[in-house]
Specification:
Keywords: Methyltransferase, Transferase. By secondary structure, the chain is an alpha/beta fold. About 35% of the residues lie in helices and about 15% in strands. The chain has 10 helices and 8 strands. Helix 3 (about 45-65) packs parallel to helix 4 (about 85-95).
Length: about 270
Amino acid sequence: MPTGTPPTPPRTDTTRAQPARVYDWLLGGKDNYPVDEAVGRRLPPQAKDAARQNRAFMHRATAWLADQGVDQFLDIGTGIPTEPNLHQIVQRVVPAARIVYVDNDPIVLRHAEALLVSSPEGTTEYVQADVRDPGGILRSARDVLDFSRPVALSLIALLHFLPDDQDPQGIVRELVDALPPGSALVLSHAASDLHSDLARQVTEEYARAGIRLGFRTRDEVARFFDGLDLVDPGLVTAPEWFRTEPAPAEEDSGIHAGVARVPSGGTA
């Protein structure tokens, strides 16, 4: 069941593109505006593939973790709800699972009620917050999640919206350090080293819309997993990550993705 009612959302700015709405357009959603569509249409066709691959990776990774018994999820950078949402995937496996969604985009808050439709046994909550305030997120999440037991932290297609001067490494470290042993980090990230020309084009188009990006190499993305135990198959492209059959179709990708566990001795 939901634990609260989201506050009244602030007015949505339809004059500037927003990452969540551009992503919604790339996924074929309807919760976007002409300014967002304009950005999406200027992106290379592979951007739609990347959005789909991100979503499919999230489905596989969270379903697998739920099957392993993880029943608490902290999803930061939730985006506009697109069914099936994370809580729907997880609660099919573990009906009593508890999920906290976090996003800073007002349009996501407008759709928060869709994120709060939990199974009767479980709980969902939505927190309006910015990933650049990890301490605030953790304080809110502790109202719903029990951090003495494993928690899966989901950072899907989020960190490439944090250039290096916003200290994404420090943010992830603060979040991961709060996780008890047995917890997991689920992460996907746009690559700067797989298709450099396309990555440059995407970065430039977002910059024209006033959105800064920080695509990273595989080695740079691997640093987010420092001190954690990567789950097989390790840090791979999004379509290459799977744990149960059937295997995803083989396809080219510009997305690094991985899942890692917090070891019994804690993070290094």
